[in-house]
Every structure is written in C-alpha cells, then in structure tokens.
From TrEMBL:
Species this protein is from: Phytohabitans rumicis
Domain of life: Bacteria
InterPro entries per UniProt: Crypto/Photolyase_FAD-like_sf, PhrB-like, Rossmann-like_a/b/a_fold, UV-DNA_repair_photolyase
Protein name per its UniProtKB record: Cryptochrome/photolyase family protein
SUPFAM superfamilies: Cryptochrome/photolyase FAD-binding domain
Annotated spans, Disordered: 154-175
Taxonomic lineage from the root: Bacteria, Bacillati, Actinomycetota, Actinomycetes, Micromonosporales
Entry's transmembrane regions: none
A Pfam family: DPRP
Amino acid sequence: MRRWLFADQLGPHFLDEPDQPVLLIESKAVFRRRAFHRQKAHLVLSALRHRAAELGGRAVHIKAETYGEGLRRLGEVVEVSAPTSRRARDFVRVQPKVTMLPARGFLTDQDDFAAWADRRRGGMRLDDFYRQARRQHGVLMDGDEPASGRWLIRRPPVRRPPTGLSPPPAPVEDDIDAEVRDDLDRWAAEGIEFAGRDGPRAFPATRREALDREDHFVAERLPRYEGMPSADPWVTHSGLSSALTLGLLDPLPVVRRAERSYRDGQVPLSSVELFARQVLGWRDYLWHLYWYFNTGDPGRTRASGRSIPTWFTELDPAAVPALAGVRDHAWLPYADRDTVLAQPWRRRDLVDWLTRHLVDAQEWSIPVGIPR
C-alpha cells in the first residue's frame, strides 16, 4: 500500500519495502496559517522535494492548499505512520481513506512507555526512564550492568573549551533549493508572512547530507562532546537534531554508531554516554511526556502568563540578544534556548513560537515545564 510521508518522516525507516510507493503532500495552508521562520520553511520544503526527487516514479508529490485537498486529488487508500502532533493525528483519524500505523522515529513504543509510567505512580524521573531504555535496547551495557559500572559518567573538568575544530559540512544548495527560494519569494509577494532572515540552507535536507554530518560528528565532535559552554556552539551540540526531526536519521542506529566508537577505543565513554542520554533518554522522554500528559492539547495547557510582545515576535535582539541567532539562523545553542524559555509569556504561545522559529523544534520537543 502507498505510504503517506509527512515532512518529518523522510528517512528509509518510515517505509516497509525498498520499492514501496509513496505519497508526499505540500500544504500551502500550513505556512499561510502561521508565520514560520523563512529558513525553517525553506528546510522543510527542500527536504520534502529532495525526497520526492530521490524516490522518482515511486512517489506521488502533490502541491496543494491543504492536506485534505491533496488526499482527494490522489483518490487512493493510503497508510501513514502516526504523525507527531495532536492536531495532525486528529486530522488523520477522520480521513476515510487513511490508515494510521504506530509512530516511528523514536526508540520506545508509546504503549511501553505508558505501562512504565503507570507503574511509577507519578515518579517518572528521566534518569529512571533512561536506564530502562538502556537496558531495553542494550545500549552501553556490559551484560546486565552499565558499561564501566556507572549509569552517569562525569567528564573530567577542563579549564578551556577545545578549539580548532572543523565546522560541520555545509550543505550545497542545488536546483531544488533555488526552486524553493523562488516559491517562497512568490508566496511572500502573495501575502504569506515569514519571520526572520533568509539565508543559505545550513542544515541537511537529504539523507546523504544527514549521514555526512553524522560522519563528521562521530569523527570530529563526539570525542569532545561535553556540556560546558563554549565559543564554538557545536562542541555542545551534535548538529544532528534537525536531521532527526525531519526523520532523515533513525535515532537507534545513530546511538549504536556512537557506542561502537567507544567500544573501538576511539571516543571516551563520558562523551558517548552524554550523547546517548540526550537521544535515547531526553529526546524520547519528551516525546512520550507530550502524549502521556496530553501536553499538546490546548485545553490542557496553562493560560497563565503574558502575551508575547511585538518586539519578541519581530526578533528584536535589543532586549534579548539570543533573538539575533533566531533571526539570522533559525537555530540556537541550548544555553541561549534557556534564555528564551525563561521568558514569562504564556506557555501555549511560547511553544507555538519555538516550533515556528527553530529548525529542530516541534510541539512535542518543547519541555513540558516551561515557563520556568
């Protein structure tokens, strides 16, 4: 059966067979309804169109005003992995010709997490979930015990951040990117609003680009991967978050590759453990909390706090310097994200703002505790 792929389901692990037919739909209404950062809009459309080009005749690529229009134009029965937002799942459930499959792109099954959480009776600590996930997937385990006998590996303190590291490989824009830029220019002229500044595409839009960035991370950055602030933001970031968000990379193979680098003696355990904790632990943990507590349901989010002011939505860095990074790159190091998350605006509005302005943010990925 033809598999419908959303724009965050673009990797091969979202298909069952190498020759499975695919449906890809561009919904113009997504960008008409809310103002996305120009560079995020470019990345999403570029990734979707590059995937269509890779699939060739196997893919039906429909540019429509809405997803509903795209499905009607196709006129076939299709199946889709469960979407990653509540609104999208609600839409899929009422489509007469769409069968929704279990979610992919995460390591722990939703039913397994719910069963684990129910047993905890409210004590759902991240550390406990992380240890359970390590055991379940056999990551950094020596038999029944964690590698080195400890779950949390503290990296020895360093006096100065590492310097002289090469930057991640920059994507090379092609004709598809030029077409996307022309379309976004035309949409803007038609009245569709975008936030931030346009710029060269800085993040992977294809699986090949994502794998190249993974190669660079494992070889160059993982040995120095640490949680301390640095003038080089990539020291504390893998640079893989947007590729994981788009579904270009499957998280478990990425974690297993990092583990192999430790087993082969190329990378210290402290670096690999920290990376595994971010992907296997924190990323999956946020995903499951989103669904377990219905945090994506507007009716369950707190309405306290102030409205986001105009200067914030216009990305004016005069009051919050971190907004310059959002304006110019649609991305922020986590230290700067904490500054943004600390703003006293209504949680619902802030989550919406972050998902529209950061290339690697989705509704489920915003910590449920904000505002702090």
